[in-house]
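Incident review: delayed structure delivery

Summary: a single-chain prediction request sat in the queue longer than the usual turnaround. Root cause was a stuck worker, restarted by the on-call engineer. No data loss occurred. The affected request and its eventual output are reproduced below so the record is complete for anyone auditing the incident later.

Affected input:
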Amino acid sequence: MGILKNYLKTWQGGELLKADVSKEKRTADKIVAAATPLFARKGFAAVSVKELADAAGVNIALISYYFGGKENLYTVVLNRQFAIVAELLDTIVKEKLAPMDRIRRFAHSLVEVHRKAPFIDQLYYGEKINPTGCFDTILLKEAARVHCFLRDCITDAIASGQFRADLDVDFAAMNLGGNIHYYFCTQPFNEILLPAQQNQAEHYIDQALEIFFRGMLISQGY
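Output delivered after worker restart:
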């Protein structure tokens, strides 16, 4: 029955009342939206059910009603955040781009991902530092998804004669992923450390890719 376990409680003449479903979904979405920054800033353990309810402006009983408790709500929050990246990867794979273009597309699309989901890195690193049951079921799976995507791009670039054949593709994928994400995970310091400019994230991605590609390419004509 998906996220809202009580969606199917209200029936009339054998059909689900659409107005009730819409209202319940709005309430559940409001709870998720309020929970996301709380979990990101404080971590799972430090957030109480009362805080979650107060932030969403709902009765405390609705956390259990819609999600079955704080743990399930946290799972929904993480899944929604990381689904944005998973959908991006699926889209890029379907576009059948050349290997280096896939890398460029992914790296630049992350700028928009972080605008849509500004708490995604805090949630990621918070779960990594203080793991819950979601570490194995969500975090490792999503980290592996990104790693495999980048590794496949690098493997294809080697096969096409663009990248050097002596590379360790797993290390190269980890290096690339780290370079791309570094800007976003240091976001609170960027206003102090970096010169002010428009499209700062895009400029960082451009330079990070240029440095990476120069170390990977057989020739410099990219």
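Verification: Residues 1-17 have pLDDT under 50 and may be disordered.
Action items: add queue-age alerting; document worker restart procedure.
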